[in-house]
Amino acid sequence: MRKYSERIADDSVWITATPTPVALTLPFYITEAGHFWAEDGYAVKREMHDSFLFLYAMSGEGEVQTGDARFPLRPGQAAVIDCRAPHQYRCTAEPWEFSWIHFKGAGAQPLFDILYPGEVGAIPLQSPPAFESALAELLDKSRGNDIASGVEASAGMHRLFSTLLKSALAGEQPGQTAAHAKEIGAAVDFIRENYASPISVDDILRGIPLSKYHFIRVFRRVMGVTPYSYLTNYRITASKALLRTTDQPVSEIAAACGFLDTSNFIAQFKRHTGQTPTEYKRDFS
Questions:
Q1: pLDDT tens across 252-285, in order?
Q2: Gyration radius (Cα) of the chain, Å
Q3: 3-state secondary structure of 96
Q4: Does the bond joining 249 to the residue before it have cis omega, within 30 degrees of 0?
Q5: DSSP state of 173
Q6: Rounded to an integer, what distance in angstroms lies between the CA atom of residue 243 and that of residue 235?
Q7: Which of 124, 134, 181, 214 gives 20 to 30 Å between its CA and that of 22?
């Protein structure tokens, strides 16, 4: 008698979890997980499922479709899909051995957006054996229903995303992010050395042999923000030190950090920190 009604081998593992109230407050929490050996005819098709899904293949081959993206998932490759939109995946070469995790949490959407700034696709892992070992440990943690297991599982999901992002960046085609590390470094150094001056994005890009549009896209992929946003963030960070360690007026601090207009500095500071410069200084007095 078969252990499961789905077309998966009997030694497949299927874990279900009911997150505790504490787990629901964590950046990530797991609702279901498993390790399947899928047989010919295995297929999942949904219009909507309220979670994100991580998939990692170890042998055989599967096919994943989400939105307009359709791609194979081969051994050593992983993918994350947003199951709140129509999606499907199936076995195309049996046995398709893969691990999977349905997860939710406040950190799920932001990290998904960082991982896939464009179309969803398969990500080849740089070190599959190490990744598989960490994944097996995470699946084991998903069985627990105590506070410690929930916290460790949430941290494990964060490490998983970090590894996926590093592999995604390393695997991008030459001529994109990996090939422009020197130019990105030069732009960052220029900002750090000249943030106190009234510089513009054109000043930052001067001497970099790339089109403005292309470099801004590559910079954002690596740094997580545009060059202008990075400049603003750096100026805000510099202003925090002055607010905490000096008695300079807000107008002087604004000028010292490259803001030509004090009201703009106050508005930017509040947008980035949730406080005005005066409120921030008061909290550290």
A1: 999 999 999 999 999 999 999 999 999 999 988 7
A2: 23
A3: strand
A4: no
A5: P
A6: 12
A7: 134
pLDDT tens digit string along 35-64? 999 999 999 999 999 999 999 999 999 999
pLDDT at 175 over 50: no
The model's pTM: 0.77
Other C-beta atoms lying within 10 Å of the C-beta of residue 114:
14
Tokens 């509040």 belong to residue: 270
Q: Which of 13, 27, 21 is nearest to 146 (CA)?
A: 21
More confident residue, 172 or 128: 128
CA distance 110 to 87: 20
CA distances 8 to 32, 56, 94, Å, are 16, 16, 10
**Residue entry with tokens 């950190």:** 107
Task: Give the 3-state secondary structure of residue 78.
Answer: strand
At residue 166, φ and ψ (nearest 5 deg) are -60, -45
Give the whole-angstrom CA distance, residue 3 versus residue 227: 55
In 83-144, DSSP assigns E strands to: 87-104, 123-124
Mean pLDDT, rounded, of the chain: 90
13 to 51, 69, 262: CA distances (angstroms):
20, 28, 60
Longest dimension (CA), the chain: 78
